[in-house]
Amino acid sequence: MSDTTFRTCPTTGLKVDLDAQKLIKANAVAAVIFLALGGLFGLSVALTRWPAVHLLPADWFYLALTAHGLDVLLLWIIFFEIAVLYFASSTLLNCRLAAPKLGWVAFGLMLGGGLITNVSVLQGQSTVMFTSYPPMMAAQHFYLGLILFAVGALIACGIFFGTLVIAREERTYEGSIPLVTFGALTAAIIAVFTLASGAVILIPTWLWSLGLISHIDPLMYKLVWWAMGHSSQQINVSAHVSVWYAVAAMLFGARPLSEKVSRGAFLMYILFLQLASAHHLLVEPGLSSEWKVFNTSYAMYLAVLGSMIHGLTVPGSIEAAQRKRGFDKGFFEWLRKAPWGNPAFSGMFLSLVMFGFLGGISGVVMGTEQINIIMHNTLYVPGHFHGTVVAGTTLAFMAITYLLIPLIFQREIRFPGLAKWQPYLFGLGVAGISLFMMGAGTLGVSRRHWDITFADAPLDFSYPEAAFLMLALNGISAIAAALGGLFYIVVVVASVFFGRKVEGKVAIAAPSGKAVVATYGSSESLRIPGTIMLVGVFFIAFVLYYFVNWKYLSDIWPMR
Amino acid sequence: MAISPPTERLWWKSPIHRPELIWIIVAFLWGLVMFFMMIWWHATGEQNLATESYRTTPNAYFARTEAMVQQYKVRDINGVPVVRPPVGSDVYLMGRMWLWYPALELVKDQTYRLHLSSLDLQHGFSLQPININVQVHPGYEHVLTITPDQAGEFSIVCNEYCGLGHHTMLGKIFVTESSGVAP
After folding, report:
1. Annotated domain spans of chain B
2. Residue A512: what pLDDT?
3. In this structure, which of A161, A203, A247, A413 has its CB flanked by the most CB atoms within 10 Å?
4. What domains can be seen in chain A, in order of their start residue?
5. What is the pLDDT of residue A510?
6. Residue A300: how many CB atoms within 10 A of its CB?
7. Which residues is B96 bridged to in the sheet?
8. DSSP state for residue A501 in the 8-state scheme
9. In 10 A of CB A456, how many CB atoms?
10. How far apart are CA A475 and CA A271, in angstroms?
């Protein structure tokens, strides 16, 4: 197509396809709107769980919980990921976007589908939770909206693949695609598997809601639905790990320690992450232990291995780049003198640490076949995934927004003071949400539950006092996180619509502003002692927490 | 940089740095430990979830539960029958909107075959304060062989969302001291 118009980015020298730029903007803006909406629902859920506040009545609580999952877990994240896919293909590869018109069709389907499902939830006929387990049935347009959204997202993935093909044919880059694009490719490949699984289960479920199919087996539904539901979390992991690498590259000029290792780790995701549907089926009838053990561990924890590798290589590449720039004293000068006042860095690094310590460790422990017995469907589960999807993915996406606004939207960040504190406030709040929900879950508190005092129940029961304290702390943390989220939205909206136009270069690189780090020396001479120490602390925490939970398990009633 | 093509064209041939290699080995071995831990626990651990399960129908399951209630009911609690089945027998627990039916009275350190199924939607069997959690499906019957090793009153919460009365769904298991019964 000859009518493609480009602008040359004054900061990076990259050619930016203006059609791609518009699509990136549209998808990112839609993402942020759904984040605001879903975040508000999330806050109301947390304030209802706080027994002293108990904000919403029961029907509204369950409705808000359904909408919260839909808007943030699906719509915010996937819209943002589509923006990342277009950026990582078209912009990073200097290439025109394949079929931009189709990109608008995809956007329209996703937006329309997302709105239809939101309407069906708000009408009150689809309070079925995000997971919509049959035989509980939602209104038919709940499923229809999800199907349209998935089709749109699938088309967007196709445009991403098409752009890669065009870039290769038109030789817009030399050699292999950049690591960040490789990570985005990983995300897109997993997305195809995920969205196809979603179609396989949601289309029959939709037909069932229309009365054309008589029965949906609840166990089969869960197996296939989670091939979408959990694998889509692996799209998030691939996307936010790519974002970590991208931020490290843009701020520090960091190059990967070893392309082979980092790409190999992404490959582990493609090969093994799809098995994770089993994480949701560990205490179900009708499945063998062998099936559960093999699948829940991603075939001997090979996908976990991928994440543990990124856990070393991402901070390692920052450390190596910083040492090369002269911050070479002791173990941690490189980290102390990192740009902690830059929200792109603080957000990215908090995301990295919290994803590992909160989301990662708890996920592996909870996904252990037998240990799942003491955690399944307790608040431990949302505690875990707020550590992965919110502290990990959402915070990473927020971090890179602070770079995309000057580069893609070509606007200066408004309210830089607010932006500076935003990742800390949001991160602190989310860490609290994650930890206190896991604490309540360890005490047995059920997830998706309106009243932990059981005031209206025919029988008497109450959770221990400590659980009430946990849920109060969870409510306070949610307020902090919501404020952090509000800061983010205020900064983004103010910058995008009212920010001063960027003229010339954007100063995004680290303080010393030196050029790209070309090499870290030979394989023997690489020095990353600070990262090794961080990784050592992580490993010890992991091992201890893992065995503590086996001890908890051994205290419950014997069963076989 | 990670946002530009690798500087070395033949990047797959460059050697792996030592810290990376050591970490890959450590992480891989730890994965193996965690993998074999699950298998080892199947062989030696006392808490493994049964895989014994059958297809059933709500009507058939209800009939068997009701027969057990008729035969072994000992008292009521707030209108819910309390059943004291024989040691070692098949015990039926039924989830339905919004009650676990019936309440059970078991003997400490004795083993029972606890059947779980649902009459309507999915429910979550969550025994508190011990914290044993098992998903319960309609149409499937799951048989756990359990040995309560603590006496006292235990509550069954429902921890799978099952409609607007979900948070009122409870059940009871009473475990009596073994000395109180003649085996």
Report:
1. 11-44, 53-180
2. 39
3. A247
4. 1-177 (1.20.210.10), 339-502 (no CATH)
5. 43
6. 17
7. B99
8. B
9. 12
10. 39
Average pLDDT, chain B: 94
Calculate the alpha carbon distances from A344 to A421, B26, B176 in Å.
Answer: 11, 31, 60
Residue A272 has pLDDT above 50, yes or no: yes
Q: In sequence order, what E strands does chain B have?
A: 53-55, 73-77, 80-83, 90-96, 99-101, 103-107, 112-118, 123-128, 132-136, 140-146, 152-158, 170-176
Q: Residue A48 is encoded by which pair of tokens? A: 């209802």
**Could you give the CA distance from residue A286 to residue A281 in angstroms, rounded to a whole number?**
10
Residue written as token pair 């998903």 = B135
* DSSP state, residue A502: P
Inspect the interface and report whether the beta carbons of B18 and A217 lie closer than 8 Å.
no
Class of the CATH domain delimited by B53-180: mainly beta
Q: How far is B45 from chain A (nearest CA, A)?
A: 8
pLDDT greater than 80 at residue B161: yes
Give per-residue pLDDT as tens, A205-219: 999 999 999 999 999
Q: What are the chain B neighbours of A133 within 8 Å (beta carbons)? A: 121-122, 160
Q: Quote the pLDDT of residue A525.
A: 67
Distance CA(A521)–CA(B18), nearest Å, equals 12
Selecting from B45, B129, B138 the residue whose C-beta is nearest the C-beta of A370 gives B45
Sheet order of strands, B132-136 included: B73-77, B80-83, B103-107, B170-176, B152-158, B123-128, B132-136
Q: Provide the b/e sequence for A399-413 (b: ≥16 CB within 10 Å).
A: bbbbbbbbbbbbbeb
| Secondary structure E strands in A271-373 | none
Are B166 and A448 an interchain contact pair (Cβ–Cβ within 8 Å)? Answer: yes
Contact A266, A190 (CB under 8 A): no
Does the distance separating the beta carbons of A178 and B130 come in below 8 Å? no
Q: Which of A228, A239, A206 minimizes the C-alpha distance to A74?
A: A228
B6 min Cα distance to partner chain A (Å): 6
pLDDT(A416) > 50:
yes
Distances (CA, A) of A458 to B83, B117, B131: 17, 21, 21
Averaged pLDDT for residues A153-168: 97
* ipTM of this complex prediction, to 2 decimal places: 0.95
CA pair distance A526, A49, nearest whole angstrom: 49
On the question of a cis peptide bond just before residue B129, with omega within 30 degrees of 0, the verdict is yes
pLDDT 10s digits, A11-23: 878 889 999 999 9
